[in-house]
Amino acid sequence: MTMEYKSLEQVAEAVRKCKKCGLCSDIKNYVPGEGSAKSGILFIGEGPGKDEDLQGRPFVGRSGQILRTLIREAGLKEEDVFIANVVKCRPPNNRDPLPEEIETCWPYLEAQIAILKPKIIATLGRHSMGRFLKDMTISNAHGRVFRAKNGQIFLPLFHPAVACYSPTKLTVMRQDFLKIPKILEKIEKGLLAE
Ligand code: URA
Ligand code: SF4
Description:
binds iron/sulfur cluster, six-stranded mixed beta sheet, single chain, binds uracil, alpha/beta, 9 helices
């Protein structure tokens, strides 16, 4: 990929002017993502919901409160992680984004990944996971570390929305999030490299 963007802010500016797919026709705000590369973790959700669309920020609604609590419980600061979505505009009535919408929006996420160079990409939910890791089920893959051919480490996690209706899932999610410091430590020590 040619690097069109030099900074996360440049990607965000491009997103805020984007008219490449139909999703932007009825939005209040674009949601490019926020945070930093400091901790080396990139969380990727699906797409903005109502609250995110209203505020132009990712994961600020009910699922967001859960995500942000779990991030803090894992000993991380919200401003040290980056939080993004597969599509940057809210799908109408919170429907799943269509494959062609995801495809059209993909270069922005690719650019964010290229700039952030995350140590861990933590996918939230099966749709986000499915874009990176093929032929896997979330019930089997969640909380496990996967290493792609290019060396990128992935940690599939449940989508925090599931924890809104299932306390059991919240417990499992918390266990998965609490693995993050250990995984980072292993990466630092080169123990997850091939
Ligand atoms: N759900 C998502 O997938 N992303 C958000 O930003 C908010 C809720
Ligand atoms: Fe552009 Fe992505 Fe919004 Fe579609 S969803 S208009 S590709 S920013």
